[in-house]
Amino acid sequence: MTPMADRDDADGRSEVRRAVLCGPGRSGKTATLTAWAGLLGCPAPVVALPSAVKTGDAFEYLTVPAVAARPSLHLLTTPGRLACGEERRLLLRGADAVVFTLDSRVWRQDANLILLDELGAELADPVRAGGRAALLLQYNHRDDPDALPLAELEALFNPVGWPSLPTVAVTGEGLPDLLALLLARLR
Q1: How much of the chain is in helix, strand and coil states, percent to nearest 5?
Q2: What is the pTM of this model?
């Protein structure tokens, strides 16, 4: 598995931007990507590929053609299981933006912390990350009764002040705004 190319057509004229959704399993990455496919009017479906690690996990990707001033997009999710760290690192390599999909439910905070620490180490390494990826935080599962208050999540996961938005991926709540924020970072 290698990072995707910077160009997407035969003569190399069409620029490609790459964004990766990273986060724990069942945090809402796939639901977010699927909703974005609809919002962007993608002719191609979201494609799921099984993880090379025998965990039953997968990663998904979506190719979005260029429209007007927007470049072509490659949107990917990473496997969420802890055993898939090497695959996450490969998928993150060369990303222009990363959306960290946090699971707002109280019982998922350990998984959020572990994967956010892993992501921070990956993005801090200029050789691996290229030092250019924009980071956005998606606080998902906001409709769950076990969801922590946003202020508490911000204090735990966002002391730096990265752009962040609350979402409910299964209903699409907040996803148009998150997509707009991402697209602004990818220009």
Answers
A1: 35, 25, 40
A2: 0.88
